[in-house]
């Protein structure tokens, strides 16, 4: 899917003015190949005006070709020096600089993987088998896939230089890879410096297959607007015992749960309790099955339960908020976009990094429309791209008219209203800046789904907008700057992943940053820091 982005820039200045010289930026592995005019540099990312909009690439990872390289350095407009580039292509003619970029280096010869896969729940084995079946039938990218009767999946690339075997681990036996629900709420170390890293890597420690989500249901007599994630954990830990403590009626709280070692309880612990270092209290009422638990909430005064979205039925559902107190309902768009905090991504989690790219190809295949449709039949929520309703978009923009904003935010809010008034939001939403392994897996799957969506004829000629939001303990200006940078970096990652789609469907890319104005959700990334960003995708 890698294709060079070419640009033709027209000079619109007076007849006596000189046009700025174009450059071509190429990485040694051929993954990055961008041509255009240098228009900015922030010390790390280089902004280039191309035919698809402004694209940002890491200067230290590219060789700069063309007369514009030395021109940009000599003019000193961006505090850019030769040492900021990986190298400058000395002695390259303009024709040489415009030759097709070199292809990525071939994978090491005769590399192989032998992985045993385990499953956190029986349903996840079915999900994995569905993916393996689909991959074996499709043989994408020339990969030969043979699914044996024993369940072993044998993979070989087109060159025959990479092979892999994935076998099913016996219950209780060691494994190298597990299929499990992964929390995006906990803290985790940075695995990727920015979007270009999780977009281009050939071997990953996490990859996403699909989605599930929890719903919080309460007795109809419990009148409460929303609960935060921390309040939920405290209720199940027995630390909050009366609804009056969280803005509800003066009534004792009766939390319900499923039995020890059940899938639902295990995931409740992982996604709700562990991020706050809490344990479920011993006196929480245990019920045998999820359906009975959901129906019992209507019968037991003061009761609350956390169940799968599909099991919530007609119960009273309470919106959930993260640390910023912004409540979000478990509507499908909110789940697929990740705006809703109680999302349960189902991921392949590797205990060791694969030597080949074959496992990456297998689990990338899970994000295709065809496989997402199959996995939806197995109970997952498809993360195929969906559009937000116009009513929800308008409600968000109307908040800007009455919001209490500082000077920086007022300016950003005005620009946001103007930019998004005639645009429509898509569900693909990613973490900006440094990312953990699970966040990188989420982001990669979301942009793959985006590429599949905007390849459709209905998006032909559209502008795809990368819209950054964020929060910072250092103030609104820092949040604004970080959100703009995150949007530019994500646009660059998408250019690298889906250059052929952009070119074939006549798409243009644009990036915007609006800081902490009108958040759709709280922006608490897994990587520690005082500034966190997310990038939404819109189009017009």
Structure description:
This protein is α/β, with parallel strands linked by helices. The protein is built from 15 helices and 24 strands. Among the domains are: 23-97, SH3 type barrels; 212-332, Periplasmic binding protein-like II (D-Maltodextrin-Binding Protein, domain 2, 3-Layer(aba) Sandwich), CATH 3.40.190; 386-539, 60s Ribosomal Protein L30, Chain: A (2-Layer Sandwich). It is 29% helix and 25% strand. Mean pLDDT is 87; it is low at 1-19 and 90-107.
What would the keywords be for this entry?
540 residues, SH3 type barrels, D-Maltodextrin-Binding Protein, domain 2, 60s Ribosomal Protein L30, Chain: A, 11-stranded mixed β-sheet, 24 strands, disordered N terminus
Task: Quickly describe the structure.
The chain is an alpha/beta fold and 540 residues long.
Count of DSSP strands: 24
> What percent of the residues sit in helical stretches (DSSP H or I)?
25-40%
The total count of helices amounts to 15
Largest sheet: 11 strands, mixed
| Spatial separation of the terminal alpha carbons | 24 Å
CATH class value of the domain at 386-539: Alpha Beta
Question: What is the SS-derived class?
Answer: alpha/beta
- CATH topology term of the domain at 386-539: 60s Ribosomal Protein L30, Chain: A
**Low-pLDDT ranges:** 1-19, 90-107
Instruction: Using the alpha-carbon principal axes, give the shape.
Output: globular
Q: Kindly estimate the percentage of residues that lie in beta strands according to DSSP.
A: 15-25%
Determine the mean pLDDT.
87
Q: Whole-number radius of gyration?
A: 25 Å
In the CATH classification, which architecture of the domain at 386-539 applies?
Answer: 2-Layer Sandwich
């Amino acid at each position: 899917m890698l294709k060079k982005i070419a640009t033709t820039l027209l000079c619109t200045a007076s007849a006596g003015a000189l046009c700025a010289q174009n450059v071509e930026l190429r990485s040694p592995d051929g993954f990055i190949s961008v041509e255009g005019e240098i228009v900015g540099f922030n010390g790390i990312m280089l902004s280039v005006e191309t035919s698809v909009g402004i694209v940002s690439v890491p200067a230290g990872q590219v060789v700069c070709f063309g007369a514009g390289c030395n021109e940009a350095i000599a003019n000193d407009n961006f505090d850019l020096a030769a040492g900021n580039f990986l190298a400058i292509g000395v002695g390259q003619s303009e024709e040489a600089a415009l030759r097709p970029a070199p292809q990525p280096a071939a994978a090491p010869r005769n590399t192989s993987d032998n992985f045993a896969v385990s499953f956190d729940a029986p349903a996840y084995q079915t999900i994995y088998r569905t993916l393996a079946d689909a991959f074996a039938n499709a043989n994408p990218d020339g990969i030969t896939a043979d699914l044996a009767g024993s369940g072993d999946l044998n993979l070989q690339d087109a060159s025959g230089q990479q092979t892999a075997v994935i076998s099913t681990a016996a219950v209780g036996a060691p494994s190298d890879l597990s299929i499990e629900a992964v929390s995006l709420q906990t803290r985790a170390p940075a695995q990727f410096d920015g979007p270009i890293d999780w977009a281009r890597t050939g071997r990953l420690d996490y990859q996403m297959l699909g989605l599930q989500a929890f719903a919080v249901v309460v007795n109809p007599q419990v009148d409460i607007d929303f609960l935060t994630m921390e309040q939920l954990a405290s209720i199940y830990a027995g630390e909050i015992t009366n609804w009056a403590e969280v803005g509800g009626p003066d009534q004792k709280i009766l939390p319900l749960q499923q039995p020890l070692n059940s899938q639902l309880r295990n995931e409740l612990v992982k996604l709700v309790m562990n991020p706050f270092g809490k344990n479920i209290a011993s006196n929480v009422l245990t019920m045998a099955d999820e359906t009975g638990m959901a129906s019992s909430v209507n019968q037991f005064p003061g009761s609350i339960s956390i169940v799968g979205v599909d099991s919530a039925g007609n119960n009273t559902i309470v919106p959930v908020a993260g640390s910023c107190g912004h409540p979000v309902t478990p509507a499908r768009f909110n789940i697929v976009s990740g705006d809703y905090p109680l999302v349960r991504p189902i991921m392949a989690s590797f205990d060791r990094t694969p030597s080949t790219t074959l496992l990456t190809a297998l689990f990338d295949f899970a994000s295709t429309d065809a496989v997402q449709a199959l996995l939806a039949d197995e109970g997952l929520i498809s993360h195929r791209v969906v559009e937000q309703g116009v009513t929800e978009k308008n409600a968000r923009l109307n908040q800007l008219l009455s919001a209490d904003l500082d000077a920086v935010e007022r300016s950003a809010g005005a620009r946001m209203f103007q930019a998004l008034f005639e645009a429509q939001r898509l569900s693909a939403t990613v973490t900006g800046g440094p990312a953990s392994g699970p966040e990188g897996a989420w982001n990669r799957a979301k942009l793959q789904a985006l590429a599949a969506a905007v390849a459709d004829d209905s998006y032909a000629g559209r502008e795809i907008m990368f819209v950054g939001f964020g929060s910072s303990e250092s103030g609104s200006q820092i949040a604004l700057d970080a959100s703009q940078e995150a949007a530019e970096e994500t646009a660059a990652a998408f250019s690298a992943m889906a250059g052929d789609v952009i070119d074939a469907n006549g798409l243009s890319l644009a990036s915007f940053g609006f800081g902490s104005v009108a958040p759709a959700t709280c922006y608490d990334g897994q990587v520690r820091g005082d500034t966190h960003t997310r990038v939404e995708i819109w189009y017009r």
